[in-house]
């Protein structure tokens, strides 16, 4: 029986998870693929460190050694950062190998280039592991595109931030205390900036946008806010109102324009993301036919992410091709453009705040702040005029009990 030769670039959490999964699931893989899967090479940084890798595997810190292997069918890339990952995958495709990546930052920047290069060389690019770990978000969207027009995607795409917000609410911790707990459990890096400031969710959102709508929004136009400024007092105020903070990544089509955001958001009990706690990820997808469906599961970790990589490996070897978003973008242009789309917002003043007038926006005073309905442009103006007020979008049905109205 011929074997499928695989090289793994990087041996951190993801790379090791892929290697261990291949080793422990040989029978299952052979039953599906009709061939044995053989890891023939692993690229590492430190050759002196014992990693428990079999002697039959080439362990090297020189990518050129891997490129000189006589047979290489699939290359799995699990390196952090844009380079040298992008260059390695370009070289791998040009050599004629299928490539699979778990690198969301690199793929957000260079995904389209890699897919075009792969098409020219008649190989595939797998990237399920770049978004939500073991949750099959990308495959689900691609399957829906057979007939559905995707209208909107909302998701909790970063488990670290979700864990911190859950700890602050459930255990009354401050942000620094919850962050330290996340670091102690291995959920957060020593430098947590990518997670807590929304960069990780931002990269994943761009990848989903390309799949669902055939293009990304203008990067600079996407509001990106993290959770580091959320206080335990705000968590408590939200809880008293029946609301929960979540770091929500959202993307949708507004006429011919793709718009998105990554920011702390308040969700009501009616919203599908309300009960997503801890390090779980969840994505809510709205299609014109299917309506809203929600996926939930582990968004990171050795085995969940390895599972996504192995699924891509199977698709690559069996040459199963899922739909692309090309046509979807054209079909979706029927979506109405609504620059004045009204959303629900909660203003949490800090100290003495004098709110300035906003045209055509009414505000209801409630406990701990103000509830209002306004569009993005009005909220942007309100933020500029009221620097000391925190303003959060509210998702889901929300009934305002007090009816005393004031006007901005």
UniProtKB/TrEMBL annotation:
PROSITE patterns for the chain: HOMOSER_DHGENASE
Top-level taxon in the UniProt lineage: Bacteria
Residue ranges of every copy of the Aspartate/homoserine dehydrogenase NAD-binding domain listed in the record: 10-127
Enzyme kind, highest EC tier: oxidoreductase
Transmembrane parts of this sequence: none
Gene3D superfamilies tied to this protein: Dihydrodipicolinate Reductase, domain 2, NAD(P)-binding Rossmann-like Domain
Region forming the signal peptide: none
Pathway: Amino-acid biosynthesis; L-threonine biosynthesis; L-threonine from L-aspartate: step 3/5; Amino-acid biosynthesis; L-methionine biosynthesis via de novo pathway; L-homoserine from L-aspartate: step 3/3
InterPro entries: Asp/hSer_DH_NAD-bd, HDH_cat, HDH_CS, NAD(P)-bd_dom_sf
Catalyzed reactions: L-homoserine + NADP(+) = L-aspartate 4-semialdehyde + NADPH + H(+)
Keyword Amino-acid biosynthesis on entry: yes
Keyword Glycoprotein carried by entry: no
Listed EC numbers: 1.1.1.3
Record protein name field: Homoserine dehydrogenase
